[in-house]
Amino acid sequence: MNKGVTLIELIVVIVVLGVIGTVWMAVLNEGVKAYVMSIDEGEAQDSASFALKRMVREIREADNASIPAEEKATPREFSFTNPYNTGLTDPPNVVTFRLTGTTLERSGDSGATWQILAENVTNTDIFTYYKKIPGSAAVAFDPATLPDTYADIQWILVKVRVSEGDRSVYRREQVFVLRDPE
Predict the structure, then answer these.
(1) Which long-range contacts does 76-80 make (Cβ < 8 Å, 24+ apart)?
(2) Is position 23 within any domain?
(3) What is the pLDDT of residues 76-112, one digit of tens each?
(4) Distance CA 79, CA 98 (A)
(5) pTM for this structure?
(6) Domain assignment present for 101
């Protein structure tokens, strides 16, 4: 009667358990990677959607607001006078959206304070401005010759690409700039 285990049997059991453990860890690791990627993508989607909805809503609400003539339209910045506080402060507050590095920011008090709308923004041009040419389709302004005022802008394409981890999300929406006819 043999009551013990031989050294060979012990080594075989350790090798088999090692192989099973390695396979199990590989499967578990892939599941964790997929979970982390879905979390990263969800965070990027939330961040991009929040920033885009906020900018588009405020630009649409400013349809008849005056756009400060001293401001310059750029692919990274857009400013307009807040239509809801005109007459409440002197001068009226200017709302500005700007991309600083990889951070998309908003100021509603003429640049005194800034609120972060999204971080890890990877596109360098947030705003593309379009003008209507009579008898043809709308044409994008050449970035080198953007207008000094917004009088010629008919609509704006707002684009946001946000990256989180290995995931990247792109959102875009066009906003028509409606003005009272002059």
Answers:
(1) 76/124, 76/125, 76/126, 76/127, 77/127, 78/126, 78/127, 78/156, 80/150
(2) yes
(3) 888 877 666 555 555 667 788 889 999 999 988 777 8
(4) 9
(5) 0.71
(6) yes
